[in-house]
Amino acid sequence: MRPSFATEEWVTLLGADPRLWLWDSGDATVRSLMLREGLAGAEQEDLLPEMRRLLLDDVQVRSLIALLPDWESVPVRGHNRPDFAPNTLNLLADMGVQGGDDPAIERLLDQMLAHQEPSGRFASFGIGFRGTTPVWGSVLCDNHAILECLVRYGRADDPAVQRGLARMGADMTMTSQGY
Question: Which residues pair with 122 in a beta bridge?
Fold first, then answer.
């Protein structure tokens, strides 16, 4: 069922309401996000369970989930790389994937939780600056990316995540650019 979207704000701003075009694309990730964000209209809310199923069966979503590495044995080669697990997890979350949606995601999140330093920062198994043997360690940018994933996938109440968030707050330092 195609929703009726027309609102004066969208039409005035863009000349047409883009939500019809987005909905008609048939993209499961787009439709799921539109429903979740309330952009598809109240008459479409009953489609949410079906859209979630279509989202999780989507070939793009399944392909990304299949790319998730084993956090315990595959070394991180850089937090700015597409194969850095938090980058893939955040992309999946942006597409509408949530905590509990897939066992591979839950396994990866559990593995991330298992590697917290006494300081409260989360560690990754990475290759050092000069290509040395991989070791467990925590770099602030990796720690923040790991924490973001844990929170986005519903682990915010976990005591380890709470310790990590507290540590993140304690690490904040005023710079010339702000905090």
Answer: 116
